[in-house]
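Quick one, probably user error.
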């Protein structure tokens, strides 16, 4: 008797993982801008649940179109673990930290995730980074320091432990996704992890419903945007990028782009003109990404 594989049908495509990784971090940059706006009305816990409730509804509606198959019962615990780290724990710790610390502090702390991911990948999957890639990570982190410390706006406070916990949570989530895509597609891995995380966050439903009923159209818009873009869209494209790159450390590096994009969004949405520190820091980060992806490496057969 033959065993039936659980992977959903995949559409052959030549689109590189770089495209999906950039799409993901572009969506995540929206979260930095709109989370702080949404927290003016919603509480930390309610926003976490409602954001992923919206994402779950959108993804559930797309499942028949995408022909997503249900996971095997024996693997449900794996999706539960992934949902716990990537969504339940991350959402709570990130929102708690973002509510206390400045956006500059939040961005630089969360930006430690690629380094943590690279270290975990080396320990678990034996994914070894080359020397020039470690140099690139140092260059990118230096760019973040320039970006956040140029005007001396970084602050250190009681939100730091929450943000460090969030960075660790998303790093562990990256590792879990890398494991799940051995048996499932990137879409399956991300969608069912989101469902699991939303189910856990549903413990905050009573308070969330009350806040939802009193929210003005402006805050409902913020909520919908957070649920669709940095939640449903970004995590799906992130898992696809992991699947196509065949290595977590290759794409976690793109997380350094998020603060740069967040600064650009701040300019267009909040009329925040980027200063010299943003330009220099952003340029340094992009230069680091160029190095990481072998920009100075000669092509050899």
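Nope, works fine. Designed sequence:
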């Amino acid at each position: 008797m033959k065993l039936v594989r659980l992977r959903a049908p995949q559409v052959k495509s030549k689109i590189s993982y770089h495209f999906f990784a950039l799409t993901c971090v572009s969506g995540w940059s929206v979260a930095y801008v709109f989370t702080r706006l949404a927290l003016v009305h919603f509480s930390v816990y309610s926003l976490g649940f409602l954001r992923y409730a919206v994402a779950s509804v959108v993804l559930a509606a797309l499942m028949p179109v995408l022909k997503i198959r249900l996971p095997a019962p024996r693997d449900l615990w794996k999706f539960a673990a992934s949902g716990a780290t990537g969504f339940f724990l991350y959402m709570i710790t990130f929102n708690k930290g973002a509510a206390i610390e400045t956006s500059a502090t939040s961005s630089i702390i969360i930006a430690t995730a690629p380094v943590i991911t690279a270290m975990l990948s080396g320990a678990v999957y034996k994914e070894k980074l080359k020397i020039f890639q470690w140099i690139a990570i140092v260059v990118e982190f230096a760019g973040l320091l320039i970006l956040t410390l140029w005007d001396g706006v970084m602050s250190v406070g009681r939100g730091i432990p929450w943000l460090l916990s969030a960075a660790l949570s998303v790093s562990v989530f990256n590792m879990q996704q890398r494991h799940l895509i051995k048996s499932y597609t990137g879409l399956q891995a991300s969608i069912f992890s989101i469902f699991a995380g939303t189910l856990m966050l549903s413990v905050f439903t009573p308070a969330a419903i009350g806040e939802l009923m009193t929210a003005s159209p402006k805050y409902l818009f913020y909520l919908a945007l957070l649920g669709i873009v940095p939640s449903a869209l970004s995590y799906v494209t992130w898992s696809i990028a992991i699947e196509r790159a065949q290595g977590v450390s290759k794409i976690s590096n793109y997380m350094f782009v998020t603060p740069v994009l967040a600064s650009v969004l701040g300019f267009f949405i909040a009329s925040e003109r980027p200063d010299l520190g943003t330009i220099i820091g952003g340029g340094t980060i992009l230069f680091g990404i160029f190095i990481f992806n072998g920009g100075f490496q000669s092509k050899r057969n």
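The radius of gyration is 19 Å.
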